[in-house]
Amino acid sequence: MLVRQLILASGSPYRLQRLKEAGLDPLVHAANIDESPQKHEDALTLSARLSKEKAYAVSAHYQNGFIIGSDQVAEVLLDSHSERLGKPGSKLKAQEQLALCSGRTVKFHTSLTVVDAESKRDVTQTETVTVIFNTLTPSQIATYINADNPIQCAGSFMMERAGIFLFKKILSEDPNALIGIPMIALRECLTLLEVDIFDLLKRSK
After folding, report:
1. Residue 134 to residues 99, 100, 129: CA-CA distances in angstroms?
2. Which residues are catalytic?
3. Mean pLDDT, 10 residues at a time, the chain of 205 residues
4. What is the CATH number of domain 6-204?
5. How far apart are CA 59 and CA 56, in angstroms?
6. How far apart are CA 194 and CA 109, in angstroms?
7. Which of 126, 138, 172, 197 shows its CA 20 to 30 Å from the CA of 2?
8. Count of beta carbons in the 10 Å neighbourhood of residue 4
């Protein structure tokens, strides 16, 4: 049976790189959707909804293939509530985010949706990674930001680089989710859509 093309509904270079490192070679078609949270929407629900909306937005452009949508929402756990962490966009905001996370627990909810563009069947899974931050000094935070410049990364760090030194512990079934795409969930979603990911590996060579 002919295995159809994977299409990544994201312009994230980190997601694309992780897929390529795993031996996959998707097309890239970035989704353009409104990512604003709905009223009273929690972080996990927001992540799942946006991953699905991204996948379906891109699926409208294809008659076949498997569209991969993914979204990550981070929240730092404070004493009485949680606060969402977005992409900082500047070094100053990154310093503020990491100071807030210092010594605290942060949850990263990364959802992945795969849509079969032909049948419009879809499967969504969410992986939550719990990160416990070390207590960080202002000097350590500044040094880290200058090293990785993580201003386009939710939570203000790059785990695959020096950001790993910010953490005391990572609790996860799939640490790939921190980079933005849970690879174990990807295999499970494709399996539920009756696609063997190993066929895709053979095709990409």
Report:
1. 11, 12, 16
2. 71
3. 79 91 94 91 95 96 95 93 92 96 96 96 96 97 95 87 94 89 96 93 67
4. 3.90.950.10
5. 5
6. 26
7. 126
8. 17
